[in-house]
Design brief:
The structure holds two protein chains of two kinds. By secondary structure, chain A is mainly α. Helix content of chain A is about 60%, strand content about 0%. In chain A, helix 8 crosses helix 9. Classes of the chains: A mainly alpha, B mainly alpha. Chain B: GO terms for molecular function: FMN binding; oxidoreductase activity, acting on NAD(P)H, quinone or similar compound as acceptor.
């Protein structure tokens, strides 16, 4: 027996491409703009969201039949908040520098529209296993975009990848810098992320014409 | 008709038919229409015959830019040699300015900027035309000339290329190409350069040829712009006279220095009815008003001489127009018919705020003593909003007139709701 049925596999693969939370649903943009100046921060953010969304979806899914629908938003918020605090404390304990870089944006995972969106749209109506897959899938879709944006912004903006000086040393003038190359300061500032995300959306839509909506 | 008697024009028409329907057709047509008007005519409807197509409009602007370009080539050399040897004592234009030495510096420094700007920009346009399968648009003709004139002379050519690709693709092509862009492409390129490579776009080392290479050495030269001096409260060290500022014998971005030639170009554009005099005039008024406000604040003694804003705030209000890029921006950039306001009343607001905000940014942001490009880009974004309210205002006024009319026009009963829906 296959590990995942075809229907389950779609839960993971859909958000990666044609139903991507960032490029198609345009959710979770704030954090995509704010923390993608470095690849490392993007990856950690993606993992944090994956944890919160995966576990949160399972918890909500398990409780879906006992949550009174009138107060379901509050219940969802409590679940997210608990998980986010766990992530925040873990980061502070084991990766203090990174938690400094991510600063307030770890806390703001609570307000990430993707999470509440998946709770409402999926976990409240599906079993725990499918909810878990859906959470992981959406977090992956979010993470992929974050990593792509972080990759280009760090490479072009700082000339490094995960802190390694892949293009040479700008001060000692080695590598590319010896022939006059310079880092692109524009890539460091958040508006650049907006443009990179825009270009990704552009590429995605020109590859798949079905995504272009009618006017 | 024998083959020998075929003119170049006819030959091109024949080649054109070979290309028809093929992928490279747009690329060929672009060259073709650059030289001759196409042999195709429309087949239906009635049309006004007019000679001023888009290409003619663009060429007129380029004609207005040629004197500025020539002047900038001489000025490149003049600033370079003056920075090395000191400014000549009895300055005469023929002896010290219009010399072959000066022009040579212009040829080796300014001309490459122009060539690179055109080659890169047109390549991008051609690629997009072939992908989209439409005619190459002439939009880049003016942009390509503006770009080298609004960057510092020492801008590395690869930076210019990167910025041009960014500006043409993100600033124009993603919106649908020429005529569809929200932001002025030339200023998008300038803004990209500014934020991406700030060390090459500001400071006192980039405005004079070779200043960057010589920096830190025994024969270091520098050319601080007037706004740069003022932003550092060093007005006393400045040796430029007001007439220098007006004629343009000052350091600055390649083509922005000579207010006189820009003024001539502006008049030419106004009389050929290419550019809007409303925008130019209201932008001048806007900058004068802001300058007067700052002068007033200084006169009242509300600001200390040690304040970092004092230098620029005490600068005579009308001189803002003859230093930096304000004049160039007002004449050649603010008047861009695509990105500017379209309604006559809207143009007054649009222009006024460009002048007003330019001087405001100049004075209050010493980090970048030039705010013209930011002001124009900002107003580009607001231009459709301004137009919207002008049009709405007009509609509302007419509706009121209709309501107040003592004798209602026939059939107007019940039409009011319909009208409102139509015009909303």
């Amino acid at each position: 027996m296959a590990l995942l049925t075809k229907k389950d596999a779609k839960l993971i693969s859909d958000p990666l491409a044609d139903n991507n939370p960032i490029t198609i649903q345009v959710l979770g943009i704030c954090s995509a703009l704010a923390i993608t100046a470095e690849l490392k921060a993007s990856i950690v953010m993606a993992i944090a969201v994956m944890f919160v969304l995966g576990v949160g979806n399972v918890v909500i899914s398990l409780m879906r039949n006992i949550i009174p629908s009138k107060i379901r938003i509050i219940v969802q918020l409590i679940v997210v908040a608990t998980l986010v605090i766990v992530v925040d404390q873990v980061l502070k304990a084991f990766a203090y520098e990174l938690s400094k870089t991510l600063s307030v944006f770890v806390g703001l995972i609570i307000t990430n529209c993707i999470i509440m969106g998946r709770f409402e749209a999926f976990a409240l109506g599906n079993g725990p296993w499918r909810s878990f897959l859906d959470g992981i899938g959406n977090a992956l879709g979010y993470g992929v975009i974050l990593v792509i944006v972080g990759f280009f912004r760090e490479l072009l903006g700082s000339g490094t990848l995960l802190g390694f000086k892949v293009l040479g040393d700008p001060i000692a003038k080695t590598g590319l810098y010896s022939i006059g190359y310079e880092n692109n300061g524009f890539m460091i500032i958040p508006p650049a992320a907006l443009i990179v995300v825009g270009v990704i959306i552009w590429v995605q839509r020109s590859r798949n014409k079905a995504l272009i909506e009618d006017h | 008709m024998s083959d020998k008697r075929l003119t170049l024009k006819k030959r091109l028409h024949i080649i054109k038919h070979h290309f028809r329907g093929k992928k490279m057709a747009p690329a060929f047509n672009a060259f073709h229409t650059f030289l001759f008007t196409p042999d195709e005519t429309t087949h239906n409807g009635s049309h006004i015959r007019a000679a001023d197509d888009l290409k003619r409009t663009m060429n007129t602007v380029i004609m207005a830019l040629v004197p500025v370009l020539l002047f900038s080539m001489f000025n490149a050399g003049y600033q370079h040699y003056s920075a090395i040897n000191g400014f000549p004592e009895n300055f005469s234009v023929m002896e010290h300015f219009l010399t072959w030495d000066n022009f040579w510096i212009g040829i080796i420094k300014v001309l490459p900027l122009v060539v690179v700007s055109y080659i890169v920009g047109l390549t991008v346009e051609f690629i997009f035309a072939v992908i989209k399968g439409h005619e190459v648009e002439e939009g880049y003709l003016v942009t390509g000339m503006l770009v080298p004139l609004i960057v510092p002379i020492d801008t590395p050519l690869w930076m210019l290329s990167v910025a041009v690709v960014f500006g043409v693709v993100i600033g124009k092509e993603v919106f649908g190409g020429t005529g569809m862009n929200i932001l002025n492409p030339a200023l998008t390129i300038r803004a990209f350069l500014f934020f991406a490579y700030p060390t090459w776009m500001s400071g006192d080392k980039v405005w004079v040829y070779e200043a960057v290479e010589r920096a830190g050495g025994p024969d270091a030269i520098s050319g601080e712009t007037i706004l740069g001096y003022l932003a550092q409260n060093k007005a006393a060290e400045m040796t430029y006279t007001t007439s220098d500022m007006f004629w343009g014998f000052i350091p600055g971005s390649v083509g922005e220095t000579s207010t006189f030639l820009i003024l001539l170009g502006g008049l030419f554009l106004i009389f050929s009815k290419i550019a809007s005099w409303r925008i130019m005039l209201s932008a001048v008024i806007g900058s004068l008003v802001m300058g007067l406000i700052f002068n007033g604040v200084v006169d009242q003694g509300w600001i200390a001489e040690t304040s970092k804003f004092y230098g620029l705030m005490s600068f005579d209000f009308w001189k803002h127009l003859i230093v930096g890029g304000l004049a160039f921006g007002i004449v050649y950039m603010a008047t861009d018919p695509v990105t500017g306001a379209q309604t006559n009343r809207g143009k007054w607001f649009y222009g006024f705020f460009i002048g007003f905000i330019s001087v405001l940014i100049r004075v209050f942001n010493p980090a970048y003593p030039e705010g013209v490009f930011l002001a124009i880009l900002l107003m580009n974004v607001f231009a459709p909003t301004i137009d919207h309210y002008v049009v709405r205002g007009n509609v509302n006024r007419r509706m009121k007139r209709l309501k107040n009319a003592t004798v209602l026009p026939e059939d107007s009963e019940g039409k009011e709701k319909e009208l409102q829906v139509e015009t909303a």
